[in-house]
Amino acid sequence: FHPHNEVHHIKKENIGLIEVMGLAVLPARLKEELKLLKDALISRITDISNNESIAKHSDWYKYLLSKYESITEEN
Questions:
Q1: Dist. CA 61–CA 69, nearest whole Å
Q2: Predicted TM-score (pTM) of this structure
Q3: Where is the Galactose-1-phosphate uridyl transferase C-terminal domain (predicted)?
Q4: How far apart are CA 27 and CA 71, in angstroms?
Q5: pLDDT score recorded for residue 2
Q6: Which of 1, 32, 58, 70 has the largest CB neighbor count within 10 A?
């Protein structure tokens, strides 16, 4: 199975039947990347393209910023 292009920033590798069933095994790199994204979202940083480790998530990040007016630690 192949992930759709719009989620390649999360996982580009082919996925197996277990993942298709909803038991996803995500790449370990995402743990740190998601922490950095969370911190940037809470701080309302508008451009993450200068951060090499999370720049690949830039389109998704901009979408989240535009969709949610208030992003806090609690939500």
A1: 13
A2: 0.71
A3: 1-49
A4: 25
A5: 66
A6: 58
Length of the chain: 75
Q: Answer yes or no: are the C-beta atoms of 53 and 36 closer than 8 Å.
A: yes
CA distance 33 to 24: 17
Residue with tokens 């609690």: 74
Of the candidates 3, 74, 1, the residue with the CA atom closest to the CA atom of residue 42: 74
pLDDT tens, N- to C-terminus, the chain (75 residues): 666 778 777 776 666 666 667 766 778 888 999 999 999 999 999 999 999 999 999 999 999 999 999 999 998
Tokens of 47: 């451009």
Identify whether the C-beta of residue 19 lies closer than 8 Å to the C-beta of residue 25: yes
> CA 72, CA 75: separation in Å to the nearest integer?
5
